[in-house]
């Protein structure tokens, strides 16, 4: 497996091998799917949307809808205005959403399509909405596309009426529906009235009923997005994912925000819970203290299996940072920490964590790829890998225990249903990590070292 | 229930013929054209078409020239297996950024090719043009030619900007790339044997077909492109006959090879007992001796008999069920209709992404008058017709799977995510078992209460 990868590293300036990111539009679609009765629309060739839907379906094991402007040669020369007009008309006629969320692609960005004026000049049926976001595929990654689409919604819809609605807006970051459900549970425990935006729970994890509905029950409601402008504040989760939309809302509607890391692990969850407590002025209820205590209890019970184990963590920036903090809390060593998404802030934040926990010899890299990660591992092996399915070939080639987390997980079931955030999510991570390490020990130890009780 | 169908889409949907042969009054289906703007099309682009055809070439470096997405989405997704190099399971891209869009991507592409040549001593590099390359005007052909000249390595440009047509056009661009690879070798002396075109060795299907041909004494010269390598591909011009399995993607290449290399072709299909047996006998008759024909007849007879008791065991579970088919190419759809008939299952909805007019004519002749036939369907149409016709199982690809499940309809992937080999007699067993397990899984009892 992966025989190409050699130990000797060499400079690569032009070639990307085995990427750890994908392009903006799929993030834009995922964000738009978190809005109720919304049709994500890709303004580009028909292939883009087919890939994005496939990609999302492979991760969530759910249908993922999105329509396309179906660019042809003609549209690429004369502009995609008429494609978009026809597209929007057809979408409202046949699929009847409340809102269409258009995102651009490399193609429509490069030919200079002006989505603002297309949408302004368009006949939009009474009571229906069309919004857009610029998501050039050649800038950033799917994470950029995700927050750009959020800013698109805020740009078009959010208003400050002057009457505070008393709610807190929670921007969950690029996470699974299971994580969003956990964040909501925590906010409910803390009695904080909130708007979750976007909210893919109830959209990308719908129950089996024997009916297919294009627009499931979940998703942030349009009036709620409009009402973001009247929220008393924003909890923006994911330092590298949620700041852009939070800062836009602050500029546009004067809603202040607090930027927090994704609540992965104890410290980050504590911070999230304490912020919520401050907002509602409520004591942390016993149930949450109990959850936290149980988590610490298990971490303590199993700590001998974790101590100083070297880990490679890869995937989306905020998820990776969260997992890095978590493994540090467990006494492990996050030896290699890598994201494909560009941005040096990632490296700084990872560096701060290394410093905070006083670990040495750890490397963090943004805009990296998995070929490079593999080379690092070949040079100095790790005991565990945590990341997306794209790591499975490396794990196999180097025979390393592997815990799947983040986006995408293409080769296992039920991941999107379970959280990695909150105390419950951390407990699940501890269990998965312990299982991976202990299964390995059971499988590879000699007979005389094989134990019933561990 | 009444399906909500756009007027513009109505020409893409027809019903099966009332009487075979009496087809003057029925309008022909509209197909092989672009998707409507605004639909949730199940269809992919030119690049996708080119990539799926060439991807199984195991020892090639497939460089995707464009922003990262096109490379990410096609990284190791094909399900094609290899008996040799696993190079093709890596993802290579120029990962173009905004700077490259402004100043052009040629330099970066040239540098990417250099980096591969310097470090990895490649035999063959494909460079795929994506949408953006078509717009910023990179001269990819020139970059490839220059690299070839400088290093003596084959560097072949695949002209596949997504917007330049549909997926079928991408197949054609892939065929052109293969032609470019084998053209310098076209004057080889002929040897006894066939090329297999249009099998991609998904779940090892190419190996099954090769085994059958070995049984009947027909040598295989080259496989295009399942489990192929640069070295085996360039031998292709020496073959006597081309077997075309996936007609949608490979008929063009077969025609070109006939014109330029004098290799005739036959369309065959290894899906289902009927088609597999007929194909093997046809191949033996086309280039074999009397002995080959005898072997083919004996072999197919033996395999068919082996399967009879197997099919009898399952038939009671399957008979009377109704199937919907939504696959990429027309030829596969036709085979599937026949295969379902062998199981006692009637096809009530059939559609393809890229079927041609002649494929749809064959489909019309095979199905009942109430069967819906549709080109480039979207999920709303599939849902409406599957419900209306009471389909029990859908055969399709990744995007159709969750749709079927949500509707409470069983499913079998006949595309990249097939779980087992579905070709040949082994494939009949796997396919029947899969159809049976999905149709009769106890989970449906939970769903339906």
Automatic annotation (TrEMBL), chain A:
Residues 23-437 form the Nitrogenase/oxidoreductase component domain. One of its GO terms (molecular function) is nitrogenase activity. It comes from the Bacteria. The keyword Transferase does not apply. Keywords: Nitrogen fixation. It holds the Pfam family Oxidored_nitro. Belongs to the NifD/NifK/NifE/NifN family. This is Nitrogenase molybdenum-iron protein beta chain. It comes from Ruminiclostridium sufflavum DSM 19573.
TrEMBL record, chain B:
The keyword 4Fe-4S does not apply. One of its GO terms (molecular function) is nitrogenase activity. Residues 45-436 form the Nitrogenase/oxidoreductase component domain. It holds the Pfam family Oxidored_nitro. GO terms for biological process: protein-containing complex assembly. PROSITE patterns: NITROGENASE_1_1, NITROGENASE_1_2. Pathway: Cofactor biosynthesis; Fe-Mo cofactor biosynthesis. Keywords: Nitrogen fixation. The keyword ATP-binding does not apply. This protein may play a role in the biosynthesis of the prosthetic group of nitrogenase (FeMo cofactor). Belongs to the NifD/NifK/NifE/NifN family. NCBIfam families: nifE. This is Nitrogenase iron-molybdenum cofactor biosynthesis protein NifE. It comes from Ruminiclostridium sufflavum DSM 19573.
């Amino acid at each position: 497996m992966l025989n190409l990868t050699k130990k000797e590293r060499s400079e690569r300036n032009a070639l990307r091998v085995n990427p750890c990111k994908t392009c903006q539009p799929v993030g834009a679609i995922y964000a738009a799917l978190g809005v109720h009765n919304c049709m994500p629309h890709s303004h580009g060739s028909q292939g883009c949307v087919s890939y994005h839907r496939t990609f999302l379906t492979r991760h969530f094991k759910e249908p993922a809808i999105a329509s396309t402007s179906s660019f042809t040669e003609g549209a690429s020369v004369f502009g995609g205005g008429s494609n978009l007009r026809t597209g929007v008309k057809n979408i409202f006629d046949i699929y009847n959403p409340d809102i269409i969320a258009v995102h651009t692609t490399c193609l429509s960005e490069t030919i200079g399509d002006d989505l603002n004026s297309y949408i302004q000049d368009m006949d939009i049926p009474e009571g229906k909405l069309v919004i857009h976001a610029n998501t050039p595929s050649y800038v950033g990654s799917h994470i950029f596309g995700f927050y750009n689409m959020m800013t698109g919604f805020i740009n078009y819809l959010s208003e400050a009426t002057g009457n505070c609605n008393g709610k807190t807006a929670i921007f969950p970051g690029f996470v699974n529906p299971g994580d969003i459900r956990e964040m909501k549970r925590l906010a409910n425990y803390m009695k904080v009235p909130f708007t979750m935006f976007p909210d893919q729970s109830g959209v990308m994890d719908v129950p089996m009923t024997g009916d297919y509905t294009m627009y499931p029950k979940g998703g942030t409601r349009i009036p709620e997005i409009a009402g973001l402008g009247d929220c008393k504040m924003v909890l923006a989760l994911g330092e590298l994912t949620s700041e852009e939309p939070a800062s836009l809302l602050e500029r546009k509607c004067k809603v202040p925000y607090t930027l927090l890391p994704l609540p992965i692990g104890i410290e980050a969850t504590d911070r999230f819970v304490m912020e919520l407590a401050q907002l509602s002025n409520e004591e942390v209820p016993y149930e949450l203290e109990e959850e936290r205590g149980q988590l610490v209890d298990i971490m303590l019970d199993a700590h001998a299996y974790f101590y100083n184990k070297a880990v490679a963590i890869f995937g989306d920036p905020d998820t990776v940072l969260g997992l890095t903090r978590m493994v540090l809390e467990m006494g492990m060593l996050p030896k290699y920490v890598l994201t494909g998404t560009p941005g040096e802030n990632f490296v700084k934040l990872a560096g701060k964590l290394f410093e905070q926990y006083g670990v040495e010899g750890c490397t963090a890299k943004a805009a990296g790829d998995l070929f490079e990660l593999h080379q690092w591992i070949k040079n100095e092996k790790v005991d565990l890998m945590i990341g997306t399915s794209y790591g499975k070939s490396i794990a196999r080639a180097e025979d390393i225990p592997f815990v799947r987390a983040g986006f995408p997980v293409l080769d296992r079931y039920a991941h999107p249903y379970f959280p990695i955030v909150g105390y419950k999510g951390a407990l699940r991570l501890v269990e998965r990590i312990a299982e991976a390490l202990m299964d390995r020990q059971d499988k590879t130890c000699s007979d005389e070292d094989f134990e019933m009780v561990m | 229930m009444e399906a909500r169908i756009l007027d513009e889409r109505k020409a893409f949907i027809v019903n099966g013929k009332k009487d075979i042969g009496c087809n003057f009054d029925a309008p022909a289906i509209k197909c092989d054209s672009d998707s409507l703007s605004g639909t949730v099309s199940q269809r992919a682009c030119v690049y996708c078409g080119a990539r799926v055809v060439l991807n199984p070439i195991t020892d090639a470096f497939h460089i995707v020239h464009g922003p990262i997405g096109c490379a990410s989405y096609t990284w190791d997704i094909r399900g094609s297996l290899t008996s040799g190099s696993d190079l093709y399971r890596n993802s290579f891209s120029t990962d173009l950024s905004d700077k490259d869009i402004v100043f052009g991507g040629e330099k970066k592409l040239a540098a990417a090719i250099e980096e591969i040549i310097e470090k990895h001593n490649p035999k063959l590099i494909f460079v795929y043009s994506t949408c953006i390359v078509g717009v910023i005007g990179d001269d990819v052909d020139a970059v490839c030619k220059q690299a070839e000249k400088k290093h003596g390595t084959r560097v072949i440009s695949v002209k596949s900007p997504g917007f330049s047509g549909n997926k079928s056009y991408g197949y054609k661009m892939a065929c052109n790339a293969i032609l470019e690879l084998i053209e310098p070798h076209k004057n080889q002396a002929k040897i006894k044997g066939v090329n297999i075109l249009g099998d991609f060795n998904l779940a090892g299907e190419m190996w099954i077909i090769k085994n059958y041909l070995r049984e009947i004494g027909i040598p295989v010269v080259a496989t295009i492109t399942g489990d192929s390598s640069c070295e085996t591909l360039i031998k292709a011009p020496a073959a006597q006959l081309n077997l075309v399995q996936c007609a949608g993607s490979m008929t063009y290449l077969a025609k070109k090879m006939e014109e330029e290399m004098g290799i005739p072709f036959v369309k065959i299909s290894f899906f289902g007992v009927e088609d597999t047996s007929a194909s093997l006998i046809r191949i033996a008759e086309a280039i074999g001796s009397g002995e080959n024909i005898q072997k083919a007849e004996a072999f197919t007879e033996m395999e068919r008999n082996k399967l009879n008791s197997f099919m009898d065991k399952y038939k009671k579970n399957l008979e009377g069920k109704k199937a919907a088919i939504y696959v990429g190419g027309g030829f596969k759809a036709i085979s599937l209709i026949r295969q379902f008939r062998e199981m006692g299952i009637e096809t009530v909805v059939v559609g393809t992404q890229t079927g041609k007019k002649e494929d749809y004519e064959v489909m019309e002749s095979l199905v009942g008058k109430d069967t819906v036939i549709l080109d480039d369907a979207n999920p709303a149409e599939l849902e409406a017709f599957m419900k209306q016709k009471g389909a029990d199982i859908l055969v399709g690809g990744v995007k159709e799977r969750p749709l079927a499940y949500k509707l409470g309809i069983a499913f079998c992937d006949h595309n990249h995510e097939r779980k087992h080999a579905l070709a040949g007699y082994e494939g009949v067993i796997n396919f029947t078992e899969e159809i049976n397990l999905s149709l009769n899984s106890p989970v449906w009892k939970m769903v339906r209460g």
